[in-house]
């Protein structure tokens, strides 16, 4: 079975990324949170770390969904490694400075995670200003 092999590989902390693409809609947040939680649990994170990861993923996804055009996709990549969990969440945006590094949400992200960064790139589509990717890193057993 392919699924069992994938779970076994994740338990060995191989760093093989798991990618999830969902419609950029708030109704999809429980799915993204569930994947983040499952991978964090399989990666032997503490319960507090699992809660931090879920909250951070939820915050980033909510910010990006709020600024995406109607038919956009949210792409989430999760990689469990020997040192921790690396998450990249990206979406095409049509407006504004999302996520704002001066916002309360950004300060929450910096508190919950060991590393937070944002990168922007152009998109060839005239209706979308840019693609924004937020990278999160959480190391095992750290504050």
Automatic annotation (TrEMBL):
Top-level taxon of origin: Bacteria
Name of the protein in question: Anti-sigma factor RsbW
Organism (species): Rhodococcus wratislaviensis (Tsukamurella wratislaviensis)
């Amino acid at each position: 079975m392919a699924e069992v092999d994938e779970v076994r590989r994740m338990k060995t902390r191989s760093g093989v990324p798991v990618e999830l693409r969902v419609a950029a809609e708030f109704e999809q947040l429980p799915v993204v949170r569930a994947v983040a939680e499952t991978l964090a649990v399989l990666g032997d994170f503490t319960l507090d770390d699992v809660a931090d990861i879920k909250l951070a993923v939820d915050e980033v996804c909510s910010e990006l969904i709020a600024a995406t055009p109607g038919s956009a996709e949210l792409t989430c990549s999760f990689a469990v490694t020997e040192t921790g969990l690396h998450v990249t969440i990206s979406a095409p945006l049509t407006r504004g400075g999302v996520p704002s590094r001066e916002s309360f949400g950004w300060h929450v992200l910096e508190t919950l995670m060991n590393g937070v960064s944002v990168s922007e790139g152009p998109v060839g589509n005239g209706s979308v200003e840019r693609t924004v990717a937020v990278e999160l890193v959480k190391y095992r057993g750290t504050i």
